[in-house]
Task: structure prediction
Amino acid sequence: MQESILKDANVLDSTVGVQITALEATLTDMTLDTTLNTDEAKKQSYVVLKEKYNELLDTKTRLDNWRSNITLLPTPEEIAKGAENPFGKGAKDEDVLTKFKSAAADLAKLKSDALSSMD
Result:
């Protein structure tokens, strides 16, 4: 389950990164358009794209924070080197599963937010 969550997080991170880069390029091109300040339709389009861009930046930050705060099981190599269970010595499989389900739900919310920003 841990591997699946991390894979989903990497895919989301990549997708959001690509979208941010594309929006940056579009916004830069729009600011070079000398008619932007006088064309109301272009202004409105710029405002909408800028809002999407800011929403994606926020989602990227939230995803980075999510990654920083997720508790992961140690790898077999880490266990061999003496790593302890980060969920505590008395943690049961169901406790770990509950934490991973919570992390997966948080990631699903981030994905939903990102997708709504990309529409």
